[in-house]
Amino acid sequence: MKIGNLLQEGVTIGKKNVTVFAPVLASSVVIWLLMLITVGGAGAFMLGGSQSPEAVAVGAATAFGGMTLVAIVGAILTMLAHGMTVVMVGKALDGQQVDLKSAWNKTIERIVPLLLASVIVGVLFGIGMMLIVLPGLVVAFFLMFTFVSVMVDENGAFESLSKSFNLVKSRLGDCVIFFLLLVAIGFVFGVVNVILGLIPVLGQILGMVVSAVYTGYISILLVMAYRELQSTAATDEPLA
Hints:
- By secondary structure, the chain is an all-alpha fold.
- The protein has one domain.
- It has helices at residues 6-16, 22-48, 53-93, 100-109, 111-130, 134-142, 146-151, 157-170, 172-197, 202-233.
């Protein structure tokens, strides 16, 4: 399989297995609702206090605490959703039936290495982004197959980090092309989301759908590329 064929094959797999888009969509809806409840509740408290300094202070503190809690819950839900998505993509590529229950069970089974890998990648990426962005992109580039290794090959967190780094290093040219492809796709979906964001309420709902499609599609491409790069690593056969 050539990299040029990834886009079309990814679309085909997505059409045949629309369930892969469900976890991210569900997590996005839950996070959105939690944010509405948190912000709305704090705002109602502030207005109910006739905007007195005490009411404003308590409302602001409530909003901050609520948003912090939502951020933590959101991070956990997002991690679980990504894990389920990768599991279902792997099963779809193997010709197996894709379903939410088995994907959930597999994700819970792999929760420890998934959580550990998520924290490590997140910290490294965050530090890299603070260092004038470029180091963060380098981290994302070399570790882009980490979660696939954790969920599909059932490797440990550190083994998956090492495997992703070594795979990218061994197939550097192909991986650069593939990474740029992911960036380009992300840019297109990002522009669409910005445009949708200009539409009140409906735009946010459509934006969540678009984000779910984007995440599922990227997961499909990552698993496909990971497997193909592994199979050609020994022969050094170019994918592009």
